[in-house]
Design brief:
Chain B: GO terms for molecular function: ATP binding; ATP hydrolysis activity. The complex is a heterotetramer, with two copies of chain A (337 residues), one copy of chain B (500 residues) and one copy of chain C (323 residues). Chain A has 13 helices and two strands. By secondary structure, chain A is mostly helical. Chain A has a domain of 221 residues. The longest helix of chain A is centred in the C-terminal third of the chain and has 27 residues. Chain B has two domains: 238 residues, P-loop containing nucleotide triphosphate hydrolases (Rossmann fold, 3-Layer(aba) Sandwich), CATH 3.40.50.300; 236 residues, P-loop containing nucleotide triphosphate hydrolases (Rossmann fold). Chain B is built from 19 helices and 20 strands. In chain B, strands 6-7-8-3-9-10 form a six-stranded mixed sheet, sandwiched between helices. Chain B has a six-stranded mixed sheet with strand order 16-17-18-13-19-20, sandwiched between helices. In chain B, a hairpin with a 2-residue loop joins β1 and β2. The longest helix of chain B has 16 residues. Chain B starts with a strand and ends in a 7-residue tail after the last helix. In chain B, 53% of the residues are buried. In chain C, α1 packs across α9, α4 runs parallel beside α5 and α6 crosses α7. Chain C starts with 14 loop residues before the first strand and ends in a 14-residue tail after the last helix. The chains are: A mainly alpha (337), B alpha/beta (500), C alpha/beta (323). Chains in contact: A-B, A-C, A-D, B-D, C-D. The structure holds adenosine-5'-triphosphate (ATP) (2 copies) and magnesium ion (2 copies). One adenosine-5'-triphosphate binds next to β2, α1 and α16 of chain B.
Chain lengths: 337, 500, 323, 337
């Protein structure tokens, strides 16, 4: 625009309301519709089961959101979660590792991958999409090598002909399966804690402001004295660590190393992060929005299943509602000339 | 007065360019030292070395007697050296609020409250804004502000550091007189407190008002130093190498046919209606404070948005352009303000070079069958480079490798590549040195005979220099026009017309 | 609306059964679902289908959701035992009947419906030996990690050990959303590099279609023979096409397997003991036999080969046949 | 642009050479290694089958490249190709359409989807990643609805119980299978023509300049008189049309309507477009680079299969080589201050 952005021409307050709360209202509307059509939908157990179902996608989405806040992008989270899931199974079953050492190993791998991404992007200057896509392929291949492409199950025969004699420990399995007070699944708790912590840091502390500043204008942040490279590295490490947490939870839920796990994770996580843009009219990456985005999709899919909609309608409805929600949010927003 | 900062033999090379050669000077507490120099003389480079963005190839800096070398802006800041940089895009985070931007330095250096956005930080941000008398809604996003407002935010940030040395690189480039005056008042106060100020500007008015001492840079070397009473003409000679005389003002062509006519036009539904006529051969300067609606008027004539009311004629026929493309086809050209936003392409665009930039609007006139006429483009560019005295190696140079004044000449040259009926120039002197401004005004004048020219500028001095006639705007309406300083000043000072 | 003459709870109707799936996309799974739906309809069952996206964690959740929904019985269709055993037990504890299809949940109260991948692979390899002897060079298409493929792979491994004259010159494969064309590209490279290959063992019809594309594109149809498992209408077309190198497939009718799964759940609900295993035997379909019988579609196959279109497994007098 | 980038500071000419030609040299190196290890690799037939294998991915990548040139992005191409592939089968088999009408229908659908993307992005202002992701889901669902999620083959039973009596015409099949002079497959020819045409337009004509200008600085392009919105719409329509061409070729090659989501296609196409950044030191989206990127991956996979490398190594090698190539290209490039 030739001149500074025209001041928003008095968006009516109703419209403003629709932009800010459109997605939330839609979410509430969906819940009401599903609850009326199928009372079982609203049972506490089912609601927590929805949260449990979206927990991993939401975790990954939250990680991606951190990199987006710092002006980057991370396509590798889905691949990393799947990779860590295999690594956890390998550690428990083949190496006969303990719960604690397995968790440490997995988080260590996450941090390593995060540093790897950071090296490629921050140090070598490879564009983020490209570097993390390469990492995605690398991880997808790497996870297959130790077992020759097979899933890792207790008692499996290894490439050298020996038999693996470890097993998933109960403590590890509980990470994915235990429910506090028979209601609150561990992964949901983990999601809640991680999302709340990152939300707090990103939205309320000065560190968060610096992440936003690095994403909004790295040069300005550097001139203001911020160690911007360190922040960018940190963003990728956070994203990878959170993703490896997701991988641990996934392994605990599945109970073995599944080579086909985590297929659609990346797209769903990115969708959640992108839908999050539209929550509360933020129009920028934000942690809470991402969680809401993931829950939104989870509610939709669960509700459709409850209504016995055929599976092939699900993708369609997902796309249609996504586009619909976005149209409301963005279509109504005042346009800049 | 004690020497706060002494610079000895600073040298900096960028590849084969010598940006700075053996520069030495001293800066005292409680003085405003003005740094003058043509575009590309090395002023910004010097600033960047002083505040730790670049390292010097040779030379030394001493602060209070000890030699220092900064590896980062942070270290410079710890020694009390703060700079407000020239490129406005470098100074703020567009996606954050004004308050967050005001507190950016504190956040980035790990001082200030851990919790951001709370009442405490809002109060702190408010205090920073008040420090230079800035009145703004602190919750607005920075990208919703005008350039001038952003510039003020950046200055407020710098002042908030309570610096020992404050460096301002062309802070008034996009400010109008009242805002500039407000800034000078702040600087006066800082000077009285004993702050050492290094001030860079191309505006002689500024220097007259604020400078205590002038150091002139020429081709990276110190070429002169002037103390009070300041001899600005001598300083300019030291800077450009020759005297810069006033461009002779011509009398307006008396019988030039009216080209553009606005009747009962309103730029906003609530703004006052006004008339405006511009004749062939005439250069009209439109001036007024920041936000007066100058760019809005230019955009309306150029077809970027419609008038809120009223109507326009071009050459006696109704003029209702619906796009820039339509305007250009009809010979109405506009050079927008802020050249990096409105004119140049980033280096990833394959034709970001001078030739590609100049040729871009005219590809359909110069080429046949959709092909790009590279030879026509290069030929026209060579001619324009010579005509406008652009200092470049050739048409294939990237604008990014030119100095600011030469970049601005490229913008001007582009819109002289084909004859215009009506030429609109929005802030064509932004960041341009005195010599180059002189060149640009000559160039505008040289070809203005067969067209109407309107120049939109904040700066009254520039308006008087470039315009045969000065039109004053306020509150999104034209309040009157005049040719002499007294009447214009009266117009600028008079209360704005009631909203009708 | 109840089912006249049926034992409770079918006499009163309104029985909710959940079908929780590991995979939904693909012809086999769609035909299975259609068979299950038809049988459920005939029984007056309100069948709730939880679609699968090859996501084991999701499948667990869906079993829990099925419990929350108040299903009387749950059919678990494929999946990973490790991720399903505990939730299946949870369902049993809640008094819900559980039937598993092609996934070994290893619980005495969970009957298993099987299409017997072992028999499937064995019959195909028997046919290979009959047509090619026991000494030839082969290409094998395989991707680990898919339970049916892994079971078929075990048979292939044993087969190679038993026949030292069988040399596996190339092994490749992919499962993606463009399986057939990617496999075709791989097969072309492998066949070019190893011109002596005469047999392609492709124990999954998508693999076979890719291999066939490659053989045809290389003009090797008179030299290379493809043996596979599974069948669909489209597959029949490709097998019987003139000059097709795809000479045999071994398959069960997925719709029949789907119906058997539902019938097993119904019998369990009616209190009948089914034993640990309910097996649906696969049928060998050779190119010659299909051409001779003029079979063009699955419907034709059902009509011409009764053993293909119908199974006696898990039947009872009060259970109406689907459609 | 934020701050004007300075001109690269005289990188040594050897380094410059490595940056410009690094990927091409690597490609040649690969070819030599494979050719030595397996002479069949270099046979003309094999080379054309590599091209045939990458033709569709390359086509989609070329489409994405056009949107990237215009400053956007198109995640929906893979989904669209899969969708069009189903639509082609539906038209031929269920509607018993002719070859010509089927092709027209498919291209029409492509244009429609492109206009839809453009509506969402250009008109409603929804961010490109988000809008095309929504479109991807929508198409993935939509393609399944007419047949209730089943593949489309001659003689199939439709949802209403009737039997489809159409078939793939020989003319249509030839689009995917015929080879001119027994050598040059039709899809390769199509790719060559489309890529050459788009390269010509984008690199040599004034229209191409406008696309680049819109991508580089839309405001500057508009103020210079370009109808930027029209060009952005056009970019999405081109991308979708090219993708639908890809879908037609895919249907012709497979010979039936295959239910699939196109995720893998999308990633590969984007990888090709991104690798293309590094070809000839362009460091920006460019049509030729994308084609080279796709061929690069194709050569790698073909060669590995020929050497009977285990399939599970392929993703790993793909990732490793991708990252390696990028490291050479970007890691050696002079850093900007
Ligand atoms: N990062 C850089 N890389 C290469 N050359 C540079 C760089 N920064 C500055 N230069 C060159 O150094 C010289 C001095 O530039 P500088 O920006 O210091 O000039 P200036 O006096 O501030 O001019 P202006 O009045 O236009 O702001 C110019 O020739 C410029 O092109
Ligand atoms: N149609 C409008 N309605 C309301 N406010 C407007 C309108 N057009 C512009 N403004 C406001 O006017 C201010 C700037 O207007 P404009 O850019 O035309 O001024 P200017 O005189 O060119 O100022 P500058 O010196 O900053 O370039 C902005 O704050 C903008 O929000
Ligand atoms: Mg400067
Ligand atoms: Mg203006």
């Amino acid at each position: 625009m030739a001149s500074p952005a025209r001041a928003p021409k008095g968006a009516s307050s109703l419209r403003r309301f629709a932009i800010d709360y459109g997605l939330l209202i839609l979410l509430v509307g969906l819940v009401v519709v599903f609850a009326v059509a199928q009372p079982a939908f609203l049972r506490v157990n089912n609601l927590f089961s929805i949260l449990q179902a979206v927990a991993i996608v939401a975790l990954l989405g939250v990680g991606v959101t951190v990199t987006m806040i710092a002006g980057g992008f991370d396509l590798s989270v889905g691949g990393l979660a799947a990779f860590v899931q295999m690594a956890a199974a390998y550690s428990l079953i083949v190496l006969d590792g303990s719960t604690g050492s397995t968790i440490l190993l997995c988080l260590g791998l996450g941090i390593l991958v995060g540093l790897g991404n950071a090296l490629l992007i921050v140090r070598l200057g490879i564009p983020d999409l490209l570097a993390t896509l390469g990492m995605l392929f690398l991880l997808a291949g790497l996870q297959l090598i130790p077992t020759g492409g097979r899933s890792i199950a207790p008692g499996m025969t290894l490439l050298d002909g020996s038999v693996a004699d470890g097993a998933f420990t109960n403590a590890f399995l509980a990470l994915g399966r235990h429910r506090f007070w028979d209601i609150l699944p561990v992964p949901v708790l983990v999601l809640a804690v991680v999302a709340a912590a990152l939300w707090f840091v990103m939205d309320l502390t000065r560190f968060g402001r610096v992440f936003h500043a690095v994403g909004g204008n790295e040069l300005a942040a550097r001139l203001a004295g911020a160690p911007t490279r360190a922040y960018r590295v940190c963003a990728y490490v956070i994203s990878s660590t959170v993703a490896s947490l997701g991988g641990i939870l996934m392994a605990a839920r599945i109970g073995r190393g599944d080579v086909s796990a985590g297929n659609g994770l990346m797209l769903d996580a990115i969708a959640a992060a992108l839908i999050g843009y539209a929550v509360l009219g933020a129009n920028r990456p934000n942690i809470l929005g991402t969680v809401v985005g993931a829950v939104f999709v989870g509610v939709l899919l669960n509700g459709l299943t409850m209504l016995n909609a055929p599976y092939y309608l699900q993708d369609f409805v997902k796309g249609a509602v996504l586009i619909g929600a976005l149209t409301v949010t963005y279509g109504l927003a005042p346009k800049r000339a | 007065m004690p020497v706060v900062l002494a610079v000895e033999g600073l040298t900096k090379r960028f590849g084969s360019t010598r940006a700075l050669t053996d520069a030495s000077f001293e800066l005292h507490a409680g003085e405003v030292l003005a740094l003058m120099g043509a575009n590309g003389a090395g002023k910004s480079t010097l600033v960047k070395i002083l505040c730790g963005v670049h390292g010097a190839d040779a030379g030394s800096m001493t602060i209070g007697g000890t030699t220092v070398a900064f590896a980062s802006p942070r270290q410079a800041r710890e020694h009390g050296i703060i700079a407000v940089h020239q490129t406005i895009a470098d100074v703020g985070v567009p996606t954050l609020s004004v308050a967050d931007n005001l507190l950016l330095d504190r956040s980035c250096t790990g001082r200030g409250p851990l919790l951001a956005g709370g009442r405490r930080s809002l109060r702190a941000a408010g205090a920073i804004a008040a420090g230079i008398g800035l009145e703004l809604d602190l919750s607005r996003r920075l990208d919703a502000l005008s350039i001038a407002e952003r510039q003020l935010v950046a200055i407020a940030r710098a002042v908030a550091h309570d610096p020992a040395v404050l460096i301002l690189d062309e802070p008034t480039a996009s400010l109008s007189a009242p805002e500039s005056e407000r800034l000078f008042a702040v600087l006066d106060r800082l000077r009285d407190r004993g702050v050492a100020l290094l001030y860079i500007s191309h505006k002689t008015g500024d220097l007259r008002r604020i400078a205590d001492r002038i150091v002139v840079l020429r081709d990276g070397r110190v070429s002169g130093e002037f103390r009070r009473p300041l001899d600005l003409d001598a300083a300019i000679r030291a800077m450009v190498g020759h005297a810069v005389g006033q461009v002779a003002r011509r009398d307006p062509v008396p019988d030039g046919a009216p080209i553009l006519r606005l009747s009962q036009a309103r730029l906003a539904p609530t703004a006052a209606a006004f008339d405006l006529v511009v004749h062939a051969g005439e250069v009209v300067a439109v001036t007024g404070p920041v936000g007066a609606g100058k760019s809005t008027l230019a955009g309306a004539i150029f077809g970027l948005w419609p008038l809120a009311a009223g109507h326009m004629d071009l050459d006696g026929r109704p003029w209702r352009p619906r796009s820039a493309g339509e305007a250009i086809r009809n010979g109405v050209f506009m050079a927008g303000e802020d050249r990096w936003r409105t004119t140049f392409f980033p280096g990833t665009v394959p034709f970001a070079q001078i030739a590609g930039t100049i040729g871009f609007p005219f590809l359909d006139r110069w080429g046949r069958a959709g092909l790009v006429a590279r030879t026509a483009e290069t030929r026209a560019t060579r001619r324009l480079i010579a005509e406008f005295g652009i200092k470049a190696r050739g048409p294939e140079d990237l604008p990014a490798s030119l100095s600011g004044g030469n970049q601005q000449k490229v913008v001007l040259a582009r819109w002289h590549a084909e004859p215009a009926r009506l030429l609109l120039l929005d802030e064509p002197f932004q960041g341009v040195d005195i010599g180059a401004r002189d060149d640009i005004i000559r160039a505008i004048r040289a070809q203005s005979r067969d067209r109407a020219t309107i120049v939109f500028v904040n700066d009254l001095e520039e308006a008087l220099e470039v315009g045969d006639r000065v039109v004053v705007m306020a509150d999104h309406a034209v309040v009157g026009d005049a040719a002499d300083l007294a009447r214009i000043s009266a117009l600028l000072a008079s209360p704005h017309p009631a909203v009708s | 609306a109840g089912l006249a003459g049926a034992p409770p709870p079918f006499d009163r109707g309104d029985v909710t059964v959940a079908l929780v799936r590991y995979l939904s996309v693909g012809d086999f799974y769609q035909a299975y679902e259609a068979g299950a739906r038809a049988q459920a309809k005939a029984l007056g069952i309100d069948l709730r289908i939880f679609p699968g996206k090859q996501d084991a964690a999701q499948e667990r959740e869906q079993v829990e959701q099925a419990i929350a929904l108040g299903a009387k019985a749950i059919v678990i269709d494929h999946g990973l035992p490790e991720s399903l055993k505990d939730v299946a037990r949870k369902a049993l504890d809640a008094g819900i009947k559980v039937v598993a299809f092609d996934v070994n949940l290893d619980h005495p109260r969970i009957p298993q419906v099987e299409q017997s991948d072992r028999a499937l692979a064995q019959k195909a390899l028997d046919q290979v030996v009959q047509e090619n002897g026991t000494s030839f060079q082969a290409a094998y298409i395989y991707v680990a990690g898919f339970a049916p493929l892994d079971r078929r792979d075990a048979v292939w491994t044993a087969f190679k050990a038993a026949h030292p004259g069988v040399i596996e010159k190339a092994r490749f494969g992919t499962v993606s959303d463009a399986t057939a064309s990617v496999v075709a590209d791989q097969a072309k490279a492998a066949l070019r590099a190893n011109p002596d290959i005469t047999v392609v063992f492709a124990p999954y019809d998508e693999f076979a279609r890719g291999a066939k594309l490659a053989v045809n594109e290389l003009n090797l149809a008179d030299k290379v023979k493809i043996y596979s498992a599974d069948v669909s209408t489209a597959d029949i077309g490709e097998i019987t096409e003139p000059g097709s190198p795809w000479v045999a497939s071994v398959a069960t009718n997925p719709a029949v397997v789907g119906a058997v799964s539902i019938r097993a759940a119904a019998l369990a609900l009616a209190g009948q003991d089914l034993g640990p295993r309910i097996t649906v035997e696969p049928i060998l379909l050779t190119q010659g036999a299909l051409r001779e019988a003029g079979v063009k579609t699955i419907a034709d196959l059902n009509a011409r080969i009764p053993a293909f279109g119908h199974s006696e497994a898990a039947t009872a007098p009060w259970i109406p046949q689907p459609r």
